[in-house]
Write a structure and sequence with these properties.
Blueprint lengths: L1 E2 L6 E2 L33 E2 L13 E6 L6 E3 L5 E4 L11 E2 L5 H4 L4 E8 L2 E6 L6 E3 L2 E3 L5 E2 L5 E4 L2 E8 L3
Parallel strand pairs: 3-11, 6-7
Antiparallel strand pairs: 1-2, 4-5, 4-14, 6-8, 8-9, 9-12, 10-11, 10-13, 13-14
């Protein structure tokens, strides 16, 4: 068992974040590489959305990051891991949000994933320190929730909107 240095909860071996307080178990307290914790009001965690309408696979995903000059264009044919680059800890997300002040905004190294399965686009929180919100609802870690055109995604305090570019 691994004891959390913050809340003293006993966690299973191999656990990276405390199951009780969500703080990192692998880094020392005060380590500058650790995801910056942000204070957020307590809120209910959202269950998986019952809306499973299949809208067809988009040709591209456009992410409009708050205060960015132009959107990011992503290929939905592969899983997209979103986070911030940290070679020292072997964190290599597909989409590095470091240029958008990701660390200051509370984005984890491997924060969330966008997946396309069965012509349905989903967003999955990967057990991030500060959570992922979809249209204001906090996602349950490792449980996919359906993404729709125009949805608001919040990784920690970093806000973005997702738009689907359909095939013609």
């Amino acid at each position: 068992m691994i004891e959390c240095p913050f809340c003293h909860h006993q966690n299973r071996e191999g656990t990276l974040f405390c199951q009780n307080c969500d703080r990192s178990l692998s880094l020392n307290v005060g380590d500058p590489r650790a995801t910056r914790r942000i204070d957020t009001p307590p809120d209910a965690i959202s269950p998986v959305s019952p809306d499973r309408a299949r809208l067809g696979k988009p040709a591209a995903i456009l992410l409009h990051i708050q205060n960015a000059s132009k959107p990011l264009r992503l290929d939905p044919s592969q899983e997209i891991i979103i986070g911030r680059l940290d070679p020292a800890n072997l964190a290599y997300p597909d989409l590095d949000l470091s240029p958008y002040q990701a660390h200051e905004q509370g984005v984890s190294r491997l924060h969330a994933a966008i997946r396309c399965r069965d012509d349905m686009l989903t967003l999955v929180d990967l057990g991030s320190s500060n959570g992922t919100r979809l249209n204001g609802r906090r996602l349950v870690p490792n449980q996919p929730d359906v993404l729709h055109d125009g949805d608001e995604i919040r990784l920690g305090n970093l806000m973005m909107h997702v738009y689907m570019e359909q095939q013609h």
